[in-house]
């Protein structure tokens, strides 16, 4: 921090739960909810006296209100709201120059993988994918030619945890100009503050937890660097991917209940994870003590989120389970108030070809559950019925559920 900044009055911050609902409105009528400026342009007083806003692609008060709120929640200095999580990645990759080398995980979100592959095949960047759970391997691959590193933790649906602190620290030592980019969609600001772990630019799909109601698509980019903020803003203003006023307003509304939603979702998810584990399924969830990186996850996060995956040992069986639930809707995405079930190989991760999935040890029978805020007993009843109907589990003489295909764990 520069001496000038440290003399300025520090902004008082409250705990996250309070910040989420605390709203200091500058509105002329003191409206308790910040107003929606559904306007593309703003009239100017005169040619010599231009106002703060002129055109919504460049800036809009509703978007600014949202961004200022997000900055406090993400502990960032600058945040930008754009039209989707992938829009964030598009903006960020535009900071690269032709031929720049980038390192990325091998279990990234399907859309992230698709965009990086597109840029790689076009010759725009050279993208190298490695298993980011292998910290030493990643460290050994970082050179002065590495310009950007894309990390995600925990990944989904394989729930691999990345040592963000140690990789960021090493990367900046090797190349002070490297940009470490982190996708925090899975944890949300409630459970993780990646900027505190040495990450330069963080982004997340606000379509998921931040909005929480699956009624808009949005993405948020956050940084503490003035330099990156200026470059990011320039791309957003030039390309016009800033979030629309109405979607910004809806996201502001969704955001207020973030803490209470994800806490409830997480508690439900812990219960479901234990239920499935006790039956004998191989469950991947960072909150389970037998997750191989449970401790590493705990060293970086304040919670575990509400996404888990499990293997049944048989693709057909998995398909039948997915098609037998009632409360769990068959849909991609997560972070919404209602629970979802999916088969990543056929849905969210279908854009990764089968050969690559096999190389990356991606189990084709994997089922992903994204847990909502419903009554947990109802969720477990729904799963029990689906497991019985599909033939994946039976009831033994002691009235206990047991799975039919014993699963060989492979992590
Ligand atoms: C959904 C998702 C994205 C993409 O966000 P969109 O809003 O769908 O564009 C990126 N990363 C992760 C981890 C996601 O789950």
UniProtKB/TrEMBL annotation:
Keyword Electron transport recorded: no
Gene Ontology biological-process annotations: 'de novo' L-methionine biosynthetic process; transsulfuration
Modified residues (N6-(pyridoxal phosphate)lysine): 208
This protein's GO CC annotations: peroxisome
Annotated metabolic or biological route of this protein: Amino-acid biosynthesis; L-methionine biosynthesis via de novo pathway; L-homocysteine from L-cystathionine: step 1/1
Gene3D superfamilies: Aspartate Aminotransferase, domain 1 (3.90.1150.10), Type I PLP-dependent aspartate aminotransferase-like (Major domain) (3.40.640.10)
Alphabetical list of InterPro entries matching this protein: Cys/Met-Metab_PyrdxlP-dep_enz, Cys_b_lyase_euk, Cys_met_metab_PP, PyrdxlP-dep_Trfase, PyrdxlP-dep_Trfase_major, PyrdxlP-dep_Trfase_small
Listed EC numbers: 4.4.1.13
The keyword Acyltransferase is annotated on this UniProt entry: no
Required co-factors: pyridoxal 5'-phosphate
Enzyme class: lyase
MF annotations from Gene Ontology: cysteine-S-conjugate beta-lyase activity; pyridoxal phosphate binding
UniProt name for this protein: Cystathionine beta-lyase
Organismal lineage: Eukaryota, Fungi, Dikarya, Ascomycota, Saccharomycotina
Gene name per UniProt: STR3
